[in-house]
Design brief:
The structure holds two protein chains of two kinds. By secondary structure, chain A is mainly alpha-helical. Chain A has one domain. Helices cover about 80% and strands about 0% of the residues of chain A. The two termini of chain A are about 25 Å apart. Chain B is an alpha/beta fold. In chain B, about 30% of the residues lie in helices and about 10% in strands. Chain B contains eight helices and eight strands, in the order ααββαβαββααβαβαβ. Chain B has a five-stranded parallel beta sheet. Classes of the chains: A mainly alpha, B alpha/beta. Chains A and B meet through helix 3, helix 4 and helix 5 of A and helix 1 of B.
Chain lengths: ~150, ~250
């Protein structure tokens, strides 16, 4: 079972899938930073001076991490960044769920889609589960990388 | 995590930051972000139910009552948390406003049956209120102010503004990098205290849209003391069949 989890066949597919998801997620944010800044503001977790700089830098880091995963370069750094970002997203959405602050997550779309409070809350729960699933994928990459390091001469 | 991985992780973040700065430097005006924004309620979770009056507790002390004919400037009636005119208009302002290519323009009126107009408030209803950043108003008041050719500011994104806005409104998106320049320009236009006491109506998309409130706070911070937020915003204006203008110009 452990061998299957760290099998290169699986690892390469997980890398490509996670990389593609992060690239797809980054593009609309890069295309419209003010809208993404608005999304970050809606989380009510980031201090005012950091909102714009986060909106500018985070999508590019997502893009580079995604590209690195797909191209198979700096894999350890890329999966670390991906895991950190996913953990941050999960915590941020969960905090807002706990305080009933309904927001659009801004994960793949930065446009305000005019949802109701209930629709947003439901989507946020889905987002948390989706991000947890992706964090599991990042965990597989980490496990495979660790096995690879251990087996290296 | 070994040293090499840490360095590579930092290198990816640094590369992302450099790319972000370069992309932002070459971005068109409506997609450019100021490095540091000014969002007073960034850490404050909004209440679900909106109220009919100003949501933001006033921070000014000993407000100086100002009427349109008065020339007394309420500049000194501020606390440390209240930005001064100079501070507020120089916080960001990185990008001089570039001329937006004029889009095809037309004036349209949505053919929605309009109910009998309610009694319009008198001019006395729109006196300055220096003790609070804004007062929320509804369509009847907004329509009355529109008929008086009061200044209207559209706090939505410029791209949305160009698709349709209240006739005569100017684009003032709080999320775009030139907002401080626009605010500074407005301050220059209305530097006289009597001009700052003239009513200004700000709107966005209604509902839970806060952009108009943010802009109102920004203007209140530089001594504009007669600001009204159109609570239900542009969708409500359209529903009433009031005049709508499309394109880049007011």
């Amino acid at each position: 079972m452990k061998g299957l989890l760290a099998h290169p066949w699986l690892t390469i597919r997980v890398q490509i899938a996670l990389g593609a998801i992060f690239i797809i997620a980054a593009l609309p944010k890069i295309a419209d930073p003010p809208s993404f800044a608005h999304m970050i503001y809606n989380y009510r977790l980031v201090p005012s001076p950091l909102i714009n700089i986060s909106a500018l830098v985070m999508p590019w880091v997502e893009l580079l991490a995604g590209l690195a995963l797909i191209l198979g370069v700096w894999k350890a750094a890329a999966r670390t960044l991906v895991a950190i970002m996913l953990a941050v997203f999960i915590v941020a959405i969960s905090i807002n769920l706990s305080r009933d602050n309904a927001i659009d997550c801004g994960c793949f779309n930065v446009a305000d889609r005019g949802k109701t409070h209930e629709q947003r809350i439901f989507d946020m729960k889905v987002d948390v589960f989706r991000d947890l699933g992706m964090l599991l994928l990042a965990g597989q990459l980490w496990y495979a990388g660790k096995r690879e390091e251990d087996e290296a001469p | 995590m070994n040293r090499k991985t840490i360095l590579q992780t930092l290198a990816l973040i640094a590369a992302g930051a450099i790319l972000a700065l370069v992309a932002n430097a070459f971005a068109p005006r409506e997609r450019k972000l100021a490095m540091a924004g000014s969002y007073p309620n960034a850490m404050k979770v909004p209440a679900r139910e909106t109220t009919t009056m100003a949501l933001i507790p006033p921070t000014r002390v000993a407000p100086v009552p100002v009427v349109p004919t008065t020339t007394t400037a309420p500049v000194t009636a501020t606390t440390e948390t209240q930005p001064t005119a100079t501070a507020a208009i120089t916080t960001v302002g990185l990008n001089p406003a570039a001329k937006t290519p004029a889009a095809p323009e037309k004036t349209t009126a949505v053919p929605v049956p309009q109910p009998p107009p309610p009694t319009h408030p008198s001019a006395d209803s729109f006196l300055p209120h220096p003790d609070k950043p804004y007062v929320e108003i509804t369509f009847a008041d907004v329509n009355a102010l529109h008929a008086k050719n009061v200044l209207f500011l559209d706090a939505r994104r410029t791209s949305v503004y160009e698709q349709g806005h209240i006739a005569g409104a100017r684009p003032y998106s709080v999320w775009e990098s030139d907002i401080e320049d626009k605010v500074r320009k407005l301050f220059d236009e209305r530097s006289d205290p009597s001009a700052q006491a003239l009513p200004i109506v700000i709107y966005c998309s209604g509902g839970d849209c806060e952009d108009s409130h943010m802009l109102a706070q920004k203007l209140w911070g530089i001594q504009f003391n007669n600001i009204y937020v159109y609570k239900d915003g542009f969708p409500d204006w359209q529903q009433h069949g009031a005049p709508v203008h499309t394109g880049a110009n007011p």
